[in-house]
Amino acid sequence: MLLICPHCKKQYNIDEKKIPPNVKMGRCKFCGQQFPLRAEQDAREAMVEPTQPVRRIGICISKGGVGKTTTSVNLAAGLACSGFKVLLVDTDTQGQDSFVLGVKPKGGLTELITEELAPDEAVVKARERLWLLAGGKSLAGLKRLIDRKDFGGELTLAEALKPIENQYDYVIVDTSPGWDPLTVNVLFYIKDILTPVSLEIMTLQGLVEFLKSLSAIQKHRKEVALKYILPTFYDQRVKKCNGILEKIEQLYGHLLCKPIRSNVRLSEAPASGQTIYEFAPGSPGAEDYRELVRKVANNDKLLR
Ligand SMILES: Nc1ncnc2c1ncn2[C@@H]1O[C@H](COP(=O)(O)OP(=O)(O)O)[C@@H](O)[C@H]1O
Ligand SMILES: [Mg+2]
Fold this sequence. Notes:
Elements: E1 2-4, E2 11-13, E3 25-27, E4 34-36, H1 40-48, E5 55-59, H2 68-81, E6 86-90, H3 96-101, H4 109-113, H5 119-122, E7 123-127, E8 130-133, H6 139-148, H7 156-165, E9 170-174, H8 181-187, E10 192-198, H9 204-218, E11 225-232, H10 239-252, H11 264-268, H12 276-279, H13 284-297
Parallel strand pairs: 5-9, 5-10, 6-8, 6-9, 10-11
Antiparallel strand pairs: 1-2, 3-4, 7-8
The protein binds adenosine-5'-diphosphate and magnesium ion.
Residues 68-69, 92, 96 line the site of magnesium ion (MG).
């Protein structure tokens, strides 16, 4: 019988008689995901609805230049390479995500919310299994629109994304530095927060401040929680880096991810419109982001 992995669409021709009657699930050798062992027709149906609910992850911290965009793009692209369908949402007026991915969409998040573009026009395909809802200058107008709403402004993003999110396994939301109506909207939409903490500049204070603001949101929305702390710009030769890392370990050890090293290839990749896996697949940056993908997907077999 023909089996199709609903995650990466890899096809397998399998002799049905060789599957023991009590075995209901198989693991895709290509993407490492589990899927039900059913014949082609059923598998095709399974492709329409993801087997797991969508995971909504925000890359957030009020500080700029700490690796939010680099992490958003390379986490999203790495998950897509692993076989997941991923929507990357850029909520920053700088609109860096489209630049980093080398795509030029005619609109994005603003146009989706104002309904100037239909969802399939606002969302652009950036790579295999990776779609982008771009940010950019037009988001400034969107912030004013949110501000002018008498009530429910904080749910604007969630209301726009809910109808389309089920087409994806992951929605990754890149955020702007600072704290504004869109940041609040992101925190009213996502469930898990991944916070990059630069070990180069002293951002632990930034983390503490962000957590204070977050607790104000959590009073109204309990589901949103800090799930991952990702040290970035790690240089083991620099004493200060190890000092900050130890401090994070003491305070938030259970949330700590393996650090992303300071790697010049990560800063060069955006100019070529490539992800780190395309630009320098053998670099320490690519290696570190693959590790992050495995951690987030909770699957040690991915991207090996
Ligand atoms: N681990 C790293 N090593 C070297 N340069 C990096 C690293 N992570 C990010 N960069 C570079 O640092 C700058 C800021 O990163 P960026 O992801 O844009 O931060 P943010 O989105 O938080 O403002 C960018 O030029 C980026 O290419
Ligand atoms: Mg950014």
